From TrEMBL:
Gene3D superfamilies the record matches: alpha/beta hydrolase
Domain AB hydrolase-1: 22-240
The protein's name in its UniProt record: Alpha/beta hydrolase
PANTHER family per UniProt: MONOACYLGLYCEROL LIPASE
Keywords: Hydrolase
Lineage: Bacteria, Pseudomonadati, Bacteroidota, Sphingobacteriia, Sphingobacteriales
Any Pfam family matching the protein: Abhydrolase_6
Single Gene Ontology MF annotation: hydrolase activity
Domain of life: Bacteria
Amino acid sequence: MTYPIIEEDGFKYIEAGKGETLVLLHGLMGELSNWELVIEHFKDRYRVIIPILPIYDLPILTLGVKALSRYIHRFLKYKNLNQVVLVGNSLGGHVGLVFTVAHQEFVKALVLTGSSGLYENAFGGSFPRRESYDYIKEKVEFTFYDPATATKELVDDVFKTVNDRSRVIRILTMAKSAIRHNMAKELSKITIPVSLIWGKNDKVTPPEVAEEFHQLLPNSELNWVDKCGHAPMMEHPEIFNTFLDKFLDRILLK
């Protein structure tokens, strides 16, 4: 990642560009670099901010999607941000949904890609063979349509994380919180524009999850990315950016 991480008042984040603000929320195992091509595409016209979600820092007894939503609330107030566009992948989408239900006045629009919140077929309740590099490689490749997207660098990062006992306990705690927190009954409260940008071959949050989100979110659009898994902004960044461009033009440039 070519952007420096800013650390101030207990927050860590990346920021680039000026204009209307896009806040990008990463997933449970997501690196900031997952968003690099999105930042590159939008920073000339928008202010792009990626807060680092404190999955490894919050007290483990309170760790969950609601705790991360409260963190985003504190962060936006600290940065004096209002009417932002939240863009979330996987767990980041789930956090965006929880935050929007509680604080819709802060959010102008929401973009979800491979979001949890209804159903996800994630790593499950454990990493039974976390010491096996090949097993972890297989699990990372499962995230994508094209296994080649799971670069050695990415697999190395995940392998290192899941073999850190402190971190893996937090990851599993967070994953269980997300699975338990089903939002089906709350989504009708979100009346702002929502764009769903979804991999047609997502095996973690399959296409029927996107369709259910589309049905339950009253002001939503659904865009499919073909030959794509759980992270369209990584696997097909050009297509992801095109869909996001069109959505932003529609909601911000009226």
